[in-house]
Structure formats: C-alpha cells, structure tokens
Design the sequence.
C-alpha cells in the first residue's frame, strides 16, 4: 500500500505553498475523530510505536494527502479496484452540481466584457490622502482678470468640483456660475493640446529656438517693435514680470483689451476725479439702493459679495412693526431686465437715453451742486416725475445710508452723476468706497487697443505676443478691423486655452495651462491678493502666461512655481516659507486686503468733490443724447419717430464668449429668457408689435452701416425701442460645441459705442429661428409665443405658486402665505403616516433673496454628474438639470413683476412618484428622502408623469456616455453615472449626507451644520437655500442637539409648500416673497406709465 | 316580429334579418367555410399579405432603431413621459375587448347571432392583445429588464411594487391574453378536426391532426367540449370588465388633472367595447365581400353590431359630458383648467376631432338605412377607430403637457418613429396575423354554424328556418 508521496490528487504540486490540509476545521475534526474511533474499536494488543506507524495507515495518509478529504474521492478518474470504483466514482448529483456551477460561473463572467484596467496602487501613500476621501485646496479663479478665492475638491489628484472659499472676501463661501463650471473647461477635449506653428503641430524646442534668437535681437534694439496684448491683469507676479520686461526692453509696449471690462466705469472715474479709481460698495449699510442699468447682484467682479450683503438685509422671517425700516429698498431702473431687477422693490423700465435723463432729473431733484441751480442748466427733466420725486425723497431721508449705482453700461456722464449723487448724499465712506484700481497699470483699454492697431497698420510692430487667451480677432471693436491690422505683423504668438479665432491668424499658438493647472496669483475686486495653485499636472503641457513671459525674458528654466515665489519673496517678508504656506492654505494672502497695509491697495481718503463744470458737462451730454433719441419728458408721449437703441451686454452664461466651449454654461438656461445655446435680440412686446415682427423671427440689424443677421426674442419687461444683444455668441472657432451658435454682437460693436448703439435699424426677414428655451416652449404655435408667457404667469398666480406680499400687506395679514392654500390635514392619507426617528432632512428656499443667478444649477450639475443633452434635446424639453429656476412674469406684459423660484426635488413625504413605480426603484428612506435606485429603474416614466413638480429627469438617450475619457474625469466618483433609460432626480446630495453620517459615526460627534451642505446651498451667493435636519432639537433621537437653521426658516409664517393642496407634503418649502415698496409709489410702476397718465 | 307604422296605417310585416341565409345544410356550411382554407389562396390575399408584410418590416425597423438608440427617438419628453406607446397600448387593449364580449358574454346570453363572427372576433382579440402587449415593453427605458415587473423569486430578494397600477396591468393583460387564447383554441378544436378530415395534403393533415388534439366528435367529446367552452366563457366574462378597468387605473390612480377621475373604469370599458365592435366591423365587412360570406354574416349581424356601437358610443359620449361637468362642478382650478385646455388649448383640434368621430358621427347609427349599408357602417366604424385613438391621445398626452406647474409645460409631438411603430402594429403585426388567420384557420365556426342550419334544433336554427 505504499503510496508515492505525491498521491493521486490533492498533492499535485501545482500549489506547493498550500498547506496539506487547509480544509475547514469542521471537516478536519470529523475525520480525525473517525480515525480515533476506528483505533478505539480495535481489540487486542495492538500497539503503535511511533507516529510513523500511525501515519502509515491508509486513512491517515489520505488525510494528509487530500486537500478536501471527504470530497476528493469524487475526482478519482481511473479507479483500480471495485471498492475504489464504488467509493470514488463521481456521483451523478455531484457531477451535475459542479458542472452546473462551473457553467454558471463561466457564463456569468462571459456576460459583460470587463474593461482592461491597470491598477497601480500607491507604492508610497501620499500624506493626507485617503482613497475615497476628497481633499480640498484653496486656489483662485479669475473672471475678467479679477480673482475669486475658491476651494477645489480633488479626488485622488483629479479636481471635480469648485466651492467658494469662506475666507476670501470675493467669495464668502459662494461662487458664481463661471467658477462652478471651471472644472469642465479643465477637462475639455476641445482645448488646444499642442504647440502649433502655422497651423501645424510643432515642438516646444522649435518655438524656444525661434523666440530666443528673436528676443536676443530685440534686446539689442531695446525691444522696438515688440508688443504684448493681454486682458485685464491684477496679478502681482505678472506686474513684477512686466516691470522686468520694461527694464530689459524699454521700447516694448504692453496693450490691454478686456472685451467685457469696466471701460465706462474707468472713464467716469477719470472724468470725476481726474484719475482712475475703483469704486466699491457696502450694501450691508445701504437702506435705499437705486441702480441704473446695473446688474449689481449678478455680474461684475464683486457681484457675489454684493448679492450676499444685499440679501442679508432682506431675510424676512417674521412680522414686526419696524420691518420696513430694517429691510433695504431697491429701485432698479433698467433698460433690459436683469437678475437684480427681479429682486427689486421697484423695477422701472426705461430706454437707455430716458434712463440717463431720469438719473439727471434725480440728481437735479436732490440738488446736486451745479445741476439744480441756475436757469441755464440743461436739465432734460425739467418737470420731475412722481417716481423721481419719490425716489429723491427716499434717498434724502436716508442720506448717508443710501446708494446710487450707475452700471458699467450707462454712459460715463451718467456714472459721473451717480458719483456726484453719492457725494451729495454723504454716502462716500459709508456705502461707497474709492480706492486705487486693483488692475495693474489701469489704462483705457479702448485707447490701448486702438494704439496697437494704429501701430500695426503703420508697420511699427514686428512681434505681437497675445497672452492669457485674449481673443481680439473675435472681440475687438468692429471699427478697428483688428484682423486686417494683424496681417502686417511679422511674427504673431498666441497663447490661450483654445485654438480660437485669433490663434488662426497667428504664426505660433501655445496651449495655455488652465487655472487649475497653474501657479499664479490674482487680486479680488477689493484688492485682496491670493494664490492660484495647481490641482493637477497640466493635461496638455500647457504653459501659464507667467511662464511664457519668462520665456520672453530669457528665463527658460523658470517654472510657474518659482516665478510666483520670486515675485512674493520680498512682499511676504519675515518667514517666507511659513507665510507662503499659510497663504496657500488659507487662500488669502494676509494683509493684502483693502485695509491700509503693506502691499495692499491704497485707499485714498474721500476723493475730492466733483467739479461743477464736469457735472454741467455731463448733464449737457445726457441732454444731448436724450434729445437725439427724441426723449423729452416735458413733451407728452408718444414721440414722433422713435429710434431703436441697441445695447450690448456680456452674456449671462458665456460672458464675453470665452466660455463658449463650456457646455454646462451653454445649456444653462439664461436668467430671464431661459434660452439655452443661443443669444437673441431681446425686444419689448410693444416694440415687437409696432414693428410687426414674427415670434422668433429673423431680422437684420444695422448699426452705422454694419449689418448682422439675428433673431428676436420677446422679453416682457424690456424697455420699448431698445434692443439688447449679448456678447460672445457667433463664435467660429470654439470647438465643436461652441462654434456656430447664436449671433455675433461684436460685428456691430464699435469702440465709441461699446455698450450702446443709440441708432440701430431693424429689418424683418421672412424666416424664423429655432430657439431652445426651457420654459413656456412655444413649438406648436409660433405665433402665440407671448401668449404662452402670459398664460403661464396667470396660471402661476391662480395656482398660488409664488406667494408675494408687500411689507404692509404682511403686516396686515401675517398669514398671507397660507390664506389661499388648502393644505389637507395630516390624517388624510390612505397609507400610514411615517415616523422619522433619526435624521429628517428638509430644505427651505427664500424667494425673497433668490436673484435667479443659476449658480445652484451649475453647482448641482458638477456635483451630481448631471449630463448635458444638447440644443436638439432641449428643444424636445429633455434637459436634465436636477434643480431648475422657474421664472414667472406676472402683471402686465409691458411692466411685469418677475419672480424666480428654484425648484429641486420636493422630497415629498406622500410622494406621488413612489406609489406608481412598478419595480420599487424610487422609495422612501427613513430620513425622509425619496431615494432613487438607478439600478432598479426600468424606465416606465410613470413617476415623472405623476410628479406634480416635474423635477424628475429621464435619460431618453445615451446622455452620459462620455465622448472622451477626459470628460469622464470630471465626474464625481461619489455619484452614480446614470445610463440611458433611467430616471434620475435631485437627491438632496445624498452622497454628502452619507459622508457626514459616516464622519459623525467615526468621531462620535453629531453632524455639524456647517459641514453638511447641499451643492446648491453651498454655491448660492445670497444664501437663499438652507438644508438640514428638521428633527435636531425637536424630536426623536436627536432632540438633544441644537436645532438647525432650516427648522427656524420653516417655523416662519412665510413658509409654504408648493402645491401643498395635493397632500404631497413637500420637504422642500419656500419662504414667500416680501417686498418693501415705497408707499408713495403704491404699485411697482414705471415712471413712463405715470407720465402717460 | 312586426313593427307598427307610426301613422296608424295597416301594420306592415317586416321580415327580421336572419343569422344564416336560407338554403344551407350542414354540408354546405362546412364546405363553404373549409374551402377558403383548402382552395388555393386568391391573388388579392397575396397582395394584401405582401403589403402588410412590408408594414411588419417597417415595424421591425422602427423597433430595432428603438433598441439601438433608446426611447429618445420618440417624441416623449418631460412633462409628457408617456406618448404614442401608451396611447397605442390602451387603444389595442380596447379593441381586443369586442372579441371576448362577443364570444363569452353573448354566448352566455344565448345571442345566436354571435356565432358567425365570434371566431373572427376572438382572433382579432388575440392579435390586438399581441399588439397591445408589445407597447408596454417597447416603451420602457430599459426594455430588457421588463421581466422585473413579474413577481419571481430572485437573488435580489425583490418583489415588484404591488401598489403600482402597472403591476396590476401585468396581471390583467397576461391573464386576459391567456384566457383569450385558450378560449379561442378550445372553441376551434371541433373545426380543426373537420379540417384534418378534409385537408387535401399530407402536411396540412398532420398539422391539423396535431392541433385537433384527437378530436373524433364522439358524444363524450362534445359533452366535454361544451362544458369546457361554457366554463371558459364564464371565466372570460369578468375579464371583459376587469382588464380595461385595470388599464384605466393607470390613469385614475395618478394625480395628473385629466387622469385622476373615478369615472374612468366604466368609461374605459364602454369605450373598449365601442372600439372593439368598430374594429370587428372594419375587418369583417371587407372580408365578407372578399370571401363571399354574405350568407353567414348577414344584415342581422350588421344591425346588431351597429346597435351595440350606438349604445356603447352613447355611454362614452355621456362620459365626455360628465368629465366636463365634474371638472366644473369640482371647483378645482387645475381640473377646470385642464378641461378648458383640452377644448381650447394647443390640442383643441384633437379634442374636436374626437367629439366628431366618437360623439357625432356614430349618431348616424340610429338610422335603419345606415345600419343596412355596409359602406356606411365601414366608414362609421373607421371613424370610431380613429376617434378612440384620439380619445386616448387626449387623455394620456394632452393632460400631461399642461399639468400643475406652468413652468414645466411643454408640447408633445410624435416623431416619424412613433408613427412607424404605431402604423407598423396596425398594418404589420395585426394585419399579418389576421391574414394568416383567415388563410389557415377556419374564420367562422363551422361546428356552431351547423347548429344554425334547419333541423339542428337550436334557437337560431328555428329562427333561421322561420
């Protein structure tokens, strides 16, 4: 019976490292027991002498040799004896079991082809990095040169989301849409990826060779013929580099062109004070605010902060007698509706020329020196209207705590009057602050660009380097004919994120590094400096503007990191390393703020009073413009032959066109128009009717001989005889997604009429354009486009969707928000009421402060991997935004009130969606959420039909399939990417809730309110959204904890549920809108209407 | 039977229309009906089948593209998450009802005139249910997971959600399809036996032989057959009411204005019978002419079906009026808006066409003359078929396009793929199956028709003989 040590099976040396008997202990034990028993049963004097002898028994040998002794016999394939045959034949059952199992296993693995992925674990784990937990880095993003401090969320080295930096004065923890969308730009496959020479791929060494040789030659000629062109720059590092450049190349010149920059503001400051000054506001101290064509709360470098300050004065929670004085009051006088106008207590609609005349009348009425006195004062508002009187009175009553803002889009003369008004009212130093410009070397951009063009034409430029994505071929004023002038330059170098219109004209194109790949710095609107730090290695080997500038200076080996450190080496002083690290960590460089300190922006004492002559001059200009436009408020309306004024604005979502390739911003419905993927010529209903145009009809606009084919969009609230066209559309080279959309306003924009072309003509073409609008689609009936808006507004009021009252009405009826609602009692339900013992999540949205800026929409898109669907799908009403901002026009179509209402999922307690899902893919959680189980969804869409809020979104097609692996990188790994055929919706950012719960479990501490915010809440500049636990401090297991803010909001008498009469019991509720109108102007009405009566 | 002249003159005897033309014996009935199968198919059959086969190919193209791209190729959107697919589903299910009603309920009520159309109507039911059954699967976002709606033990430990009307649909429709199939097949067994005995070719003999389940026509066979058939009729009867009731719950359970209504179950059932009879007429009239079946499908049948359509049509029309009344009477703003929107909104023409097709045109059926004219009946039943499709369009889609929040309103429009899928089931799936049926299976029950011949002793036979 001696067996070879290999045995028959089990000990096949294929797995030599395996111990002989790794079987389960149970099996093993039983077998040894059996052996023992067998020995015990043997009678007689049998003795064993050694373990060897014992081991010699066949049983023991078998035990040793077999891995699974009990079952191994099943695998004997060549039995030798009948007994063995009997014992070891594969039993039929076992064979079938095993065959079946292996078949099933083989089949299962064959079902889906698993992608081949090489996983390389960290050989040395980076410090602080825990896989699955994001890290946040403070950095700075810029818009038009001005910085906003942000915190970038990084998942294993991959930035996926931008949050505001609470410590940064331009952010206060919130952001605008551009910052939210920045991560998408980073991964955009349409970004330029290679150095191009004459349109062909070239090497960086080729560029280096050429430029080094050229710069050496230039140095010999002191840089003659060398020019730089950038946008507005606030970066101190850049300033230092320019200084060095000026020393090395004294004859080189630096030009600036920021298409949507503050051109008029700077000109007005020069007019008023003789030197450029920046003007900042403190809205928290302003009781009465009057804006003239200023989108103070939604555009411009300080908008996020202004919005916060404004909102902080309007958070009505309960009724009190002094509410009217505690709340601020906003009069928005504007020619085109803005986000600021939607939250104004009085929105006055005036064409630009009349608007400035109105401002002049206000200045006159308030006795601004040099205007009111003297019989020869050319005041067009000789007979002030009721509105002027009322506002003047209100301003006078709040001298020192009021604020007059004339926006960038008004003429410098008008802004000068606004400065004078603020001075006259004693607001300077209280609500208005002046400081030296934040911009480095603040020149007049128009002049600077015009000089460059002049020199290029004259052949005096032989090297032009365009840095930082400046795109003058597209954005330069049309009358400069920039592209023509470019042709005379011997060598053109373009540096930018995209191979754009300008790059096409240049000899060299250098890909730029994205802000999230760059070292750099920037100043905020108030002068506070902060660093940019890279979150990721440049994806396409792009260079920052600093690095390109260093190349020009011959510092070929300098990295961005070294350049930034070198620039700050002296300024930070003291322990540089510590200060540098602290500034990087905090996202703010200490001591650079507006306070008078080293390196800070100088704040002059109150500027000198504006000279009377300047005022008279300004008033004369305004009067002349008004007369040219046919405005005479003295004479009764209508005017004999109204002229159309065409005003230009930065686009609300793609700004000056530089975000044209960003599909999040392209598909973001524009506040007010709710258009996506296009701009349009906005026109008032009355003018639309007067000109007998067609809804969405194509028109040809002509300004001073320049023509543009565009299409009109009727916007209630637009001033009559005023067209508005936003900049940035009509791009030709903005990648696949950005090119060929909308109408290029730059074609009509000239250097002397940057924001307003006072005389435009319009000719209807016999054709219509297809606009993709997300609200009140009028696809079926082209003719009734406006009727849809009217009907929607009427029904909105009938259905009590947005509930509003004035302060006085609120005082009379504190329960007005519930007066017309019929919320059923809690017992009225077929199914038992749920108990929420632990967390109970809820949200409240304050309609009083929502400006409709849409930062929440983009934030949600970034956080929740919400796909973009494209214009054709938006036309079919299939956009995917989990939170949308409903906009309603109520009142008259000419002078409507405009309401914004953000609508995420209501997370109903009696959710109509849940009962109708046949597969239970949407179900209620113990914490009050309507959970979506994407894996379980079969796509019946019944839930969406039954959702009265229509917040569910369906993947009709393959929206989430990334066209490029790069796009996949932007996705948040904490959120499932939904496949086609699956329903999705807002989850209250359940992934954040779960993270917070896990943290709380680990630390044993209750969830902190500040550490759990939804994406929309976190981004909101006005903090109109609050989210949290409704049970904390109230009931259940969390009764002992402090109550969350949301519970306080929900306790307000203003709190109401949307469509609560349906007994859905929404968890997202709204705080009704309370406005603070001037009692003298009973209803919000325009001066114009009153003028007519 | 006699009618009284209204002007009080001499009573005039009007002979009642008969259910079987005189002069038929069991042999002539059998020969006539079986000859359709035995004889070579007429040329028009090939042409007609060829055309419907093209429609079938069109349908398959549309479905293939649907599976490749997803339901986004259709016109559905948010808010109108349901479009043509559900309209078609409800329409087809409704059409199916007439078959069951004719076979089961009229059998129980001993309406002998049903005999010559019941087989045909049942086959129509089956084909219609086949078409109907396709749509709920096709309209899913992920149709390959349709089986998740069926309760089956699975490793996920998950059951469907029984509160959802869509689950009730699964049971209702599958039960309906099963019972209809068995009922139809059992009723056909004696005829299959006849066909086996008469079939000229070997292959057809074998096929009919297998299908006839060993039918020999013994008394015991007849006895068992009759009791089974009656029992199945009893089983099928409640289904006539239940299936469309359950289908109507898909809407009535929802909270959408225009859906959330207690009137839906009876209103849907009446509509289904209305529509089903219209479809039977639409199909029977051309076939009667084509195969020369005037002896079996007589004026009596046309009158009877016309009367049923008129009666159910009135119920449906009453439903429309009551819907309007309740929308106003409820004082619910959303309901009343929905009704105004239906009548005057962007889809007013659909509603107007619906009232015309379903409400006004069927009133012509009051006229004896109209009921006697096959052409008029054909046109009226076509109008009802269209009208009922429009009714479902109004209920399903128009209600959805403007529901609660005005911000989310959006129009709906079917795409080319919607139309291809719909017309593909009408002209392709449905007609192909019907053409195969009339070609290869006895479309009139020979065994039951024989009972109508003189001397067979049945009620109908006596009437026919009189």
Sequence:
């Amino acid at each position: 019976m001696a067996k070879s040590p290999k045995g028959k099976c089990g000990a096949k040396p294929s797995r030599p490292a395996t111990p002989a008997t790794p079987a389960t202990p149970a099996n093993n034990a039983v077998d040894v027991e059996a052996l023992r028993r067998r020995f015990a049963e043997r009678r007689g004097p049998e003795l064993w002498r050694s373990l060897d002898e014992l081991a010699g028994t066949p049983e023991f040998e078998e035990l040793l040799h077999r891995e699974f002794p009990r079952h191994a016999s099943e695998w004997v394939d060549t039995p030798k004896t009948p007994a063995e045959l009997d014992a070891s034949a594969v039993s039929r059952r076992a064979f079938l079991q095993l065959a079946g199992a292996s078949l099933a296993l083989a089949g299962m693995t064959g079902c889906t082809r698993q992608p081949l992925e090489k996983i390389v674990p960290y050989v040395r784990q980076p410090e602080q990095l825990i896989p699955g937990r994001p890290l946040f880095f403070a950095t700075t993003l810029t818009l038009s040169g001005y910085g906003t401090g942000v915190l970038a969320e990084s998942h294993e080295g991959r930035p996926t989301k931008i949050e505001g930096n609470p410590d940064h004065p331009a952010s206060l923890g919130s952001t605008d849409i551009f910052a939210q969308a920045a991560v998408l730009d980073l991964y955009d496959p349409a970004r330029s990826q290679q150095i191009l020479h004459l349109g062909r791929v070239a090497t960086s060494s080729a560029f280096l060779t050429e430029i080094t040789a050229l710069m050496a030659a230039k140095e010999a000629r002191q840089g003659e013929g060398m020019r730089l062109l950038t946008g507005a720059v606030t970066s101190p590092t850049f300033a230092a580099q320019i200084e060095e450049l000026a020393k090395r190349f004294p004859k080189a010149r630096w030009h600036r062109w920021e298409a949507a920059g503050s051109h008029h503001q700077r000109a007005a400051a020069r007019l008023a004070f003789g030197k450029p000054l920046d003007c900042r506001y403190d809205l928290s101290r302003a009781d009465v605010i009057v804006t003239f064509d200023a989108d103070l709360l939604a555009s411009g470098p300080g908008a996020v902060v202004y919005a916060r300050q404004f909102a902080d004065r309007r958070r009505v929670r309960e009724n009190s007698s002094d509410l009217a004085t505690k709340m601020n009051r906003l009069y928005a006088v504007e020619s085109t509706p803005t986000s600021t106008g939607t939250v104004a207590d009085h929105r006055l609609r005036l064409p630009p020329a009349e608007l400035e005349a109105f401002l002049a009348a206000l200045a006159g009425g308030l006795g601004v020196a040099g205007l009111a006195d003297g019989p020869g004062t050319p005041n067009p508002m000789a007979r002030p209207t009721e509105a002027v009187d009322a506002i003047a009175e209100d301003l006078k009553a709040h001298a020192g705590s009021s604020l007059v803002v004339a926006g960038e889009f008004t003429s410098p003369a008008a802004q000068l009057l606004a400065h004078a008004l603020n001075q006259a009212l004693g607001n300077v130093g209280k609500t208005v602050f002046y400081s030296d410009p934040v911009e480095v070397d603040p020149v007049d951009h128009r002049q600077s660009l015009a000089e460059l063009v002049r020199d290029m034409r004259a052949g005096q430029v032989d090297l032009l380097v365009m840095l930082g994505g400046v795109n003058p071929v597209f954005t330069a004023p049309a009358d400069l004919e920039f592209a023509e002038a470019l042709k005379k330059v011997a060598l053109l170098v373009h540096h930018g994120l995209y191979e754009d219109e300008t790059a096409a004209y240049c000899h060299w194109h250098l890909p730029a590094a994205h802000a999230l790949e760059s070292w750099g710095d920037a100043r905020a609107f108030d002068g506070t400096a902060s660093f940019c730090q890279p979150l990721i290695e440049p994806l396409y080997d792009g260079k920052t503007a600093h690095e390109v500038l260093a190349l020009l200076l011959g510092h070929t080996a300098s990295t961005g990191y070294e350049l930034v450190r070198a620039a700050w080496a002296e300024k930070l002083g003291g322990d540089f390393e510590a200060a540098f690290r602290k500034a990087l960590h905090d996202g703010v460089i200490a001591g650079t703020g507006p306070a008078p300190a080293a390196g800070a922006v100088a704040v002059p004492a109150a500027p000198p009073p504006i000279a009377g002559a300047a005022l008279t001059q300004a008033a004369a200009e305004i009067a002349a413009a008004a007369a040219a436009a046919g405005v005479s408020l003295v004479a009764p309306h209508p005017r004999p032959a109204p002229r159309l004024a065409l005003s230009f604005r930065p686009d609300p979502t793609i700004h000056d066109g530089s975000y044209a390739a960003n599909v999040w911003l392209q598909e973001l419905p524009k506040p007010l128009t709710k258009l996506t993927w296009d701009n349009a010529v906005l026109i008032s209903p009355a003018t639309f009717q007067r000109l007998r145009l067609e809804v969405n009809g194509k028109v040809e606009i002509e300004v001073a001989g320049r023509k543009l084919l565009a299409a009109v969009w009727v916007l209630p609230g637009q001033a009559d005889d005023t067209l508005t066209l936003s900049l940035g559309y009509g791009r030709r080279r903005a990648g696949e997604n950005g090119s060929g959309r909308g109408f290029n306003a730059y074609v009509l924009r000239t250097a002397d009429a940057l924001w307003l072309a006072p005389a435009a003509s319009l000719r209807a073409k016999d054709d219509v354009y297809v606009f993709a609008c997300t609200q009140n689609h009028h696809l079926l009936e082209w003719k009734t486009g406006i009727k849809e808006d009217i009907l929607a507004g009427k029904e909105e009021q009938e259905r009590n969707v947005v509930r509003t009252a004035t302060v006085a009405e609120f005082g009379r009826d504190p329960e007005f928000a519930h007066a017309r609602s019929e919320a059923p009692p809690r017992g009225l339900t077929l199914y038992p009421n749920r108990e929420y013992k632990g967390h109970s999540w809820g949200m409240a949205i304050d309609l009083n402060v929502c400006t409709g800026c849409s930062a929440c929409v983009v934030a949600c898109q970034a956080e929740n991997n919400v796909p973009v669907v494209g214009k054709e799908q938006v036309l079919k009403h299939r956009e995917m935004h989990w939170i949308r901002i409903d906009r309603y026009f109520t009142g008259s179509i000419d002078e409507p009130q405009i309401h914004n209402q953000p609508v995420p999922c209501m997370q109903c307690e009696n959710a109509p969606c849940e009962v109708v899902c046949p597969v239970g893919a949407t179900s209620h959680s113990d914490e009050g959420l309507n959970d979506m189980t994407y894996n379980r969804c079969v796509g019946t869409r019944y839930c969406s039909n039954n959702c009265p809020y229509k917040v569910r979104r369906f993947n009709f097609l393959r929206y989430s399939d990334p066209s490029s692996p790069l796009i996949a990188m932007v996705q948040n790994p904490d959120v499932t990417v939904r496949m086609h055929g699956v329903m999705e919706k807002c989850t209250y950012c359940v992934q954040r809730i779960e993270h917070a719960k896990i943290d709380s479990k680990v630390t044993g501490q209750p969830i902190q309110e500040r550490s759990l915010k939804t994406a929309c809440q976190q981004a909101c500049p006005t903090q109109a959204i609050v989210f949290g636990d409704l049970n904390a401090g109230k009931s259940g297991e969390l009764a002992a904890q402090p109550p969350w803010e949301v519970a306080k909001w929900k306790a307000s008498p203003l709190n109401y549920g949307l469509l609560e009469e349906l007994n859905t019991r929404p968890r997202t509720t709204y705080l009704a809108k309370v406005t603070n109108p001037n009692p003298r102007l009973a209803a919000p009405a325009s001066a114009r209407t009153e003028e007519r009566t | 039977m006699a009618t009284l002249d209204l002007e009080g003159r001499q009573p005039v005897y009007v002979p009642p229309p008969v259910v079987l033309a005189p002069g038929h014996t069991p042999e002539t009935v059998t020969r006539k009906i079986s000859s359709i199968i035995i004889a070579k198919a007429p040329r028009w059959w090939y042409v007609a089948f060829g055309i419907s086969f093209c429609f079938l190919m069109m349908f398959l193209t549309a479905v293939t593209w649907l599976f490749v791209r997803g339901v986004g190729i259709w016109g559905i959107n948010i808010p109108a998450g349901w479009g043509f697919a559900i309209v078609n589903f409800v329409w087809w299910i409704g059409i199916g009802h007439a078959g069951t009603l004719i076979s089961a309920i009229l059998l129980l009520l001993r309406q002998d005139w049903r005999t010559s159309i019941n087989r045909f109507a049942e086959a129509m039911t089956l084909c219609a249910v086949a078409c109907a059954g396709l749509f709920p699967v096709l309209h899913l976002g992920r149709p390959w997971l349709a089986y998740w709606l069926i309760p089956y033990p699975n490793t996920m430990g998950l059951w469907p959600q029984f509160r959802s009307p869509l689950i009730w649909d699964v049971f209702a429709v599958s039960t309906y399809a099963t019972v209809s199939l068995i009922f139809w097949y059992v009723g056909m067994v004696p005829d299959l036996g006849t066909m086996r005995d008469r079939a000229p070719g070997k292959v057809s003999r074998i096929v009919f032989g297998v299908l006839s389940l060993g039918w020999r026509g013994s008394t015991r066979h007849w006895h068992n057959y009759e009791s089974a058939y009656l029992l199945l009729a009893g089983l099928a009867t409640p289904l006539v009411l239940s299936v469309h009731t359950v289908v109507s719950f898909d809407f009535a359970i929802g909270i959408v204005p225009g859906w959330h209504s207690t009137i839906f179950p009876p209103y849907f059932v009446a509509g289904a019978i209305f529509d089903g009879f219209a479809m039977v007429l639409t199909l029977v009239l051309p076939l009667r002419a084509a195969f020369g079946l005037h002896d079996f499908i007589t004026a009596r049948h046309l009158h009877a079906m016309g009367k049923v359509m008129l009666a159910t049509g009135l119920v449906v029309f009453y439903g429309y009026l009551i819907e309007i009344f309740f929308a106003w009477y409820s004082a619910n703003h959303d309901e009343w808006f929905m009704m105004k929107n239906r009548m005057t909104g962007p889809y007013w023409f659909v509603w107007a066409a619906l009232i015309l097709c379903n409400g006004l045109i069927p009133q012509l059926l009051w006229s004896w003359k109209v009921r006697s004219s096959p052409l008029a009946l054909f046109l009226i039943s076509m109008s009802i078929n269209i009208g009922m499709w429009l009714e479902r369009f109004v209920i399903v889609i128009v209600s959805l396009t403007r529901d609660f929040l005005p911000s989310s309103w959006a129009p709906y429009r079917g795409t080319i793929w919607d139309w291809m899928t719909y017309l593909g089931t009408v002209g392709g799936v449905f007609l192909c199956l019907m053409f195969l049926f009339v070609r290869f299976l006895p479309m009139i029950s020979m065994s039951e028709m024989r009972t109508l011949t003189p001397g067979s002793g049945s009620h109908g036979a006596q009437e026919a003989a009189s």
User: Anything to note?
Assistant: Residues 137 and 315 of chain B are 31 Å apart (CA to CA). Chain B has a mean pLDDT of 87. Chain B touches chain A through 51 residues (CB under 8 Å).
